[in-house]
Write a structure and sequence with these properties.
The complex is a heterodimer. By secondary structure, chain A is α/β, with parallel strands linked by helices. Chain A has helices spanning about 5-10, 15-40, 50-60, 75-80, 85-95, 130-140, 160-170, 220-235, 265-270, 275-285, 290-315; strands at about 70, 150-155, 175-180, 185, 190, 210-215, 240-245. The chains are: A alpha/beta, B alpha/beta. At the A-B interface, helix 6 and helix 7 of A face helix 3, helix 4 and helix 5 of B.
Chain lengths: ~325, ~325
């Protein structure tokens, strides 16, 4: 009998189950945030839905004890895999003092947590690319064997910082992996109005690095390509550009209405490929997951999300005067 | 004590800091093998190697952004922007990122980067090699902006900037590079960022300025001394955040205040200095606050007639000082 796909990649049953668990946790936190937003309890949400497979598949291919990540605003799957908790994310959703990302200063989705080597991010897109390159430059200068991993959307791959950052990384052969999560829309603008080339990964040649396009709904495919990129990076063979293709299952944010620019049929069609369903099916087909285990998993995660929600909702806000703190070192 | 030029003091500060701390490194265009187009990094490439004096691609946002990333990791990058005029592609990185990293992460991350850039006119540099850009950054809490006026201050303040835990923009007057010479101690000293410095004690009028303006004001003060006019000169040194106490004290000292900048007048650093004096010194003033600055045109023209018209010089400063003394 042929080896199962995950076994061929060196992943145990426990590991792939853990990947699925993290994907499901990201999805359920995200869904809860939408409910809280529609109930008027939190002002804003921006989603990971549809991109969990790419995010978690990639994160599990990294060294989560020492690599640095510069995530973009949809990367709940990445930050959960790197040690952020449901409680941390809910505290951010409710903008509470204890939020480790920003102490309630930034909107949700603006991740950052030094202890887990998650660089702090902002709203202007793509600024994180040169930052990740800078951390990779430090790794090279300090002769450390970690890599940096940076993500962005396909729309952001049109920004100058994408070009400037990747070119710098290519020239200096730095250990940085850039992953473009192509979800086919930059808010309302479809890919054909964003890119003159067919694939984002076509751009890699201009930066002297390999470029790959993989199915972003398949966590194992993403795992494989990121793993390979990481091995090249730590061997001093330089950066890699990876494009994961998936679909944004929600509007851009809680303030967007995607019915104004895309057909419902298109969204419904994409939902058939939703990795939360397809990866669960893979795990069942391969005897890793059973109906019963899946139910348990849902129950366990629902409980976690409920507890995180309650905790965050009841947690205190920062004092008004805290707005004055931390402009400069004290 | 060795005498050195303003630019030699820059190089010396960089060399001493790179020797002291191996996390300090330089990145920018032409900073390596060439030693900088002005030669500010002359000799450092040979001394410290290409890995610590990095010739980057011609891309300012990457110079700032890669430096910011390295700083977040814990390095001490000194980024050079070849001319302050070319800092504009990096403004998003400097303002949206460097200035806000500590604040937005609730003190979890910080960004100890120094960004050096030559600024200023009077060198036949036309619109894009002459500008003062400090006002662009001077309402961005989280940033510090240092603009030294003497070789002594250059060394002490650049070393302080590199050791600072927050991002510092360090603007060097390019005409001062070889024009100004002065004694610079060989020992390891730092000067406080955020503190203005009295460059001349006086009792009749107060001149508040920075950069090359300090040199012009000192020259003018010597002449006016012969006419019996005693000028008090305050060098801001750090133009953001401002040293309010020193500004108030200097204004109160004589009650007649002239503010000098070579930047365009409206919305300049001196607009804020003027506001501080207005808020705090109304009953101490014996004359309206005066400003001597460049005209409100986009930038300095190339032709010598127009350049001279735009630029402040010792004669213009002297006249403004005399007029104020006679008010």
């Amino acid at each position: 009998m042929a080896k199962k796909r995950h076994e061929a990649l060196g992943l145990s049953d426990e590991q792939v189950l853990d990947m699925f668990r993290t994907m499901l946790l990201a999805r359920k936190i995200d869904e809860r945030m939408w409910l809280l937003n529609r109930a008027g309890k939190i002002p804003f949400v921006i989603s990971c839905q549809g991109q969990e497979a790419a995010q978690v598949g990639a994160a599990y291919a990294l060294d989560r004890e020492k690599d640095y990540v510069a995530p973009y605003y949809r990367d709940m799957g990445v930050v959960l895999a790197f040690g952020m908790t449901a409680k941390d994310l809910m505290l951010s959703g409710f903008a509470k003092k204890e939020d480790p990302n920003s102490g309630g200063r930034q909107m949700p989705g603006h991740f950052g947590q030094k202890k887990n080597r998650i660089l702090t991010g902002s709203s202007p897109v793509t600024t994180q690319v040169p930052h990740a390159v800078g951390v990779a430059l430090a790794a090279k200068m300090e002769k450390k064997d970690f890599v940096t991993f940076v993500t962005l959307g396909e729309g952001s791959s049109n920004q100058g910082d994408f070009h400037e950052g990747l070119n710098f990384a290519g020239v200096h052969k730095l250990p940085v992996i850039t992953m473009v999560e192509n979800n086919k829309y930059a808010i309302s603008v479809p890919i054909k109005k964003q890119l003159a080339c067919e694939k984002v990964s076509d751009r890699a040649i201009g930066y002297g690095m390999p470029g790959y396009t993989v199915d972003g709904n398949d966590p194992l495919a993403v795992y494989e390509v990121v793993k390979e990129a990481r091995e090249r990076a730590v061997k001093g063979e330089g950066p890699t550009l990876i494009e994961t293709v998936s679909y944004r299952l929600t509007p851009h944010s809680s303030d967007d209405d995607d019915r104004t620019y895309r057909e419902r049929e298109e969204v419904e069609e994409a939902k058939k490929k939703d990795s939360i369903i397809t990866f669960a099916q893979y795990l069942k087909d391969n005897g890793v997951l059973t109906e019963e285990k899946e139910k348990e998993l849902h129950k366990e995660i629902d409980k976690l999300v409920n507890e995180a929600t309650d905790y965050a909702e009841n947690a205190p806000y920062a004092d008004p005067e805290d707005a004055l703190k931390h402009v400069y070192a004290e | 004590m060795p005498v050195m030029s303003y630019i030699q003091a820059v190089t010396q500060a960089l060399r001493e800091e790179m020797k002291r701390d191996e996390k300090v490194f330089i990145l920018g265009e032409d900073v390596g093998k060439r030693g900088g187009v002005f030669r500010a990094t002359d000799g450092l490439y040979d001394e410290f190697g290409e890995d610590r004096v990095i010739d980057t691609p011609l891309a300012e946002s990457a110079i700032a952004g890669v430096g910011i990333g390295a700083a977040m990791y814990g390095m001490r990058p000194v980024a050079e922007i070849q001319f302050a005029d070319f800092i504009m592609p990096a403004v998003n990185q400097i303002i949206s990122e460097a200035a806000r990293i500590r604040y937005r992460s609730n003190n979890d991350w910080n960004c100890p980067i120094t960004i050096r850039a030559p600024y200023g006119g009077g060198v036949h540099g036309a619109l894009y090699h002459s500008q003062s850009v400090e006002a662009v950054f001077a309402n961005q809490p989280g940033l510090k902006i240092v603009m030294p006026s003497t070789p002594y201050d250059v060394k002490g303040l650049l070393k302080a900037a590199i050791r600072d835990e927050d991002p510092v923009l360090f603007f060097e007057h390019k005409r001062a590079y070889r024009l100004l010479k002065g004694e610079v101690p060989e020992d390891d000293y730092v000067l406080p960022i955020g503190k203005a410095d009295v460059k001349r004690e006086g009792s009749d009028i107060t001149v508040i300025t920075y950069g090359l303006g300090v040199h012009f004001a000192l020259q003018a003060a010597e002449k006016l001394e012969e006419e019996g006019i005693s000028a008090h000169i305050l060098d801001l040194r750090t133009v953001y955040p401002l040293d309010k106490e020193a500004i108030i004290e200097a204004a109160q000292k004589t009650g007649k205040v002239l503010l000098v900048t070579e930047d365009n007048k409206e919305g300049s650093i001196m607009s804020e200095v003027s506001a501080i004096i207005s808020e705090h010194c109304l009953f101490d003033l014996d004359a309206p606050i005066k400003r001597l600055a460049g005209p409100d045109v986009p930038a300095m023209p190339y032709a010598p007639t127009m350049e001279k018209y735009f630029m402040i010089n010792p004669e213009k400063v002297e006249k403004a000082m005399r007029d104020l003394a006679e008010f």
